[in-house]
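Subject line: Sequence and fold of a protein, written as structure tokens
Area: Proteins and the way their chains fold up in space.
Start of record: The labelled sequence and token lines come straight after this line.
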Amino acid sequence: MIKIIMADDHEIVRKGLVQIVSGTSEMQVAAEVGSARELLEELRRAQYDVVVLDIKMPDKAHQQSGQSGLDALIAIKRDYPKLPVLILSTHSEDEYALRVLAMGAAGYMNKHVAPQELIGAITRVYAGKKYVSPTLAEKLALSIGKETDRLPHEALSVREFQVMIMIAEGKPLKEIAYDLDLSEKTVSTYRTRVLQKFEMKKNIELARYAVKHGLIE
């Protein structure tokens, strides 16, 4: 029996996902939560086999942040590196899939897929494999050996991308340093590096860019 914790701030969506999974005899939704904080607290209380996580799940304690699902992924991979996390999102794969996979997610799935696809994805990540949709797999295959025009954020390292998103959300360097387990000096260095790569000077410019490209709300 695969023991799952389901994390999504929209109760109707969460209940629908739970219903899909409950229709199988091999899986059990052992817990469901509506915020990143609740998710991390529950993971400290009990063991689970798979986390199904909405990437755009605001933390109830930090409503200004539209990315705390991403923050939760960072914390989970830091504290439970072997726990597979399947990311769900309404965003296109082009924006987030490769990035969250590089950050340690076991898979990335759009919420609009067929129910059976979710079951297959959970089974796959539980088995220690990566899940990507057939569409994304095809894009990856076609891109091999090709030079593609990439947006600035697509050329960032995983850590640079994490810092960029958090800065765009308005988080202070001290909080970013704590979340990523880095020194403030190191975070400041990443900030400088990102601004240089974007040819920008101020944090507000990063925020506008992130909103424009759907990286934050």
Q: What stands out?
A: The first strand starts at residue 2 and ends at 7. The two ends are 37 Å apart (CA to CA).
